[in-house]
UniProtKB/TrEMBL annotation:
<dbReference type="GO" id="GO:0016020">
    <property type="term" value="C:membrane"/>
</dbReference>
<comment type="similarity">
    <text>Belongs to the ODR-4 family.</text>
</comment>
<keyword id="KW-1133">Transmembrane helix</keyword>
<keyword id="KW-0812">Transmembrane</keyword>
<keyword id="KW-0472">Membrane</keyword>
<dbReference type="Pfam" id="PF14778">
    <property type="entry name" value="ODR4-like"/>
</dbReference>
<protein>
    <recommendedName>
        <fullName>Protein odr-4 homolog</fullName>
    </recommendedName>
</protein>
<feature type="transmembrane region" description="Helical">
    <location>
        <begin position="423"/>
        <end position="443"/>
    </location>
</feature>
<comment type="function">
    <text>May play a role in the trafficking of a subset of G-protein coupled receptors.</text>
</comment>
<dbReference type="InterPro" id="IPR029454">
    <property type="entry name" value="ODR-4-like"/>
</dbReference>
<dbReference type="GO" id="GO:0008104">
    <property type="term" value="P:intracellular protein localization"/>
</dbReference>
<dbReference type="GO" id="GO:0012505">
    <property type="term" value="C:endomembrane system"/>
</dbReference>
Amino acid sequence: MGRTYFVEEAVGQYLSDLSTKLKPFVTGLLIGQCSPQRDYVIRAVRTPPKEEQKEEDIPSKLASIDEEWITTHASQVAQMLPGGLVVIGVFIIATPELSKDSQNALRKLIFSVEKSLTKRRLWKPAEEEVSDRAALQICSATKKVVCRTYDVQDPRSSAKPADWKYQSALSASWLALDCTVNVNIHIPLLATSPNHDLEKNTKNGLNRWSKQIEDSVFLINGQIKDDDTELLEGQKKLRGNTQSSTQFSDVKVLIQLSQGSSHRSTATVQVCSGSINLRGAVKCRAYIHNNKPKVKEAIQALKRDIINTLSDRCEILFEDLIINEGPHKKNFEREYHVLPQRLFVPVAGSSVMLSDYKFGDEADAEIQERFVEMLDQSVQAEDIHIAEEINTVDICPVTDNVDDTQQKQVTKATLLLKLQQNMGVVIAAAVAVFASIFSFNYFSD
């Protein structure tokens, strides 16, 4: 018995429109949610054309598909998805003469996309997690739809048939879980680390922090609930409402500060040349289907959003530094940077909101352009909801002149950050000091 995909009707209309506009084929991503009982598809997004690509340069054979371009698009789209939403598959709309090669192309793309997405994750899939991904093939002439699945955990996986069923108002009343997580992560830069690779060190530090999030206790509306109970147990479910409406649950995250008496703890002294500090508060959100969802499904989705949102911001910052200040800035020294703020944008006919990140100097027009390019969605400026805001940032810069005597000391910088209630921003303080013996929070005589 194959899997069943319940698909938002708007997705069917979107795919139908693509089939009449783009020839001889078009590829894209399917966005949705997996669950043990059934899978949901709430968005489809075509692969954007390359900037330098002209109409006459569009490849005419499936063998010429730009796999790297599609996987890069998938990675960027994944950064714009809140918790609970994933790239659930890929699609190809092709002319009849190309249809016979479509399935091979889809299989290759599914595994390439999954490999690309797995590389950037700081969490591991659960053993019981659904690992099937959809391969959707549509004939542009006959409009025939063929859906199959592949198990991305098995490189030798063969295609299995799947049902593709359209449904109106599929995600009009999905459930949302909201939380704000305070962040104060200190990541030492080891003196032995070549060139003080900040990106690598940051990822290592976030890996350790992500394990704390995985082990945290989650209070849903002030209560600890058993994993296998229904999320809506004791609550009234919204029924008969086809309009977009969201039922929110407020979540508090209790991060364990110590391992307890059963774990032996040892102190480690490391020779460091500086440190990276991530401080602030991040807004996190996850969406879950309303078909009797379990508590463990909802908490898992929120955990992953917490981990992803901080990791993605750091990745976006490093990319921005490389683009705007050159590759040499990948290993910058003694600088402070504000990580991008999170924002949310509604999806028409759905209670789900998509996510993105903006730097303080970015205009609304740039955000709107990114949504059109990445998600093929027009966004009005008034629909852009900034989730986090900063009041003031006072920076005490590091002295540039460092003589031999000063090199024996550790320079301490103070970052003052005031956050509005229920809002926040993460400050990435990346400091590399030339000749310190211990962490930069300590001084030597």
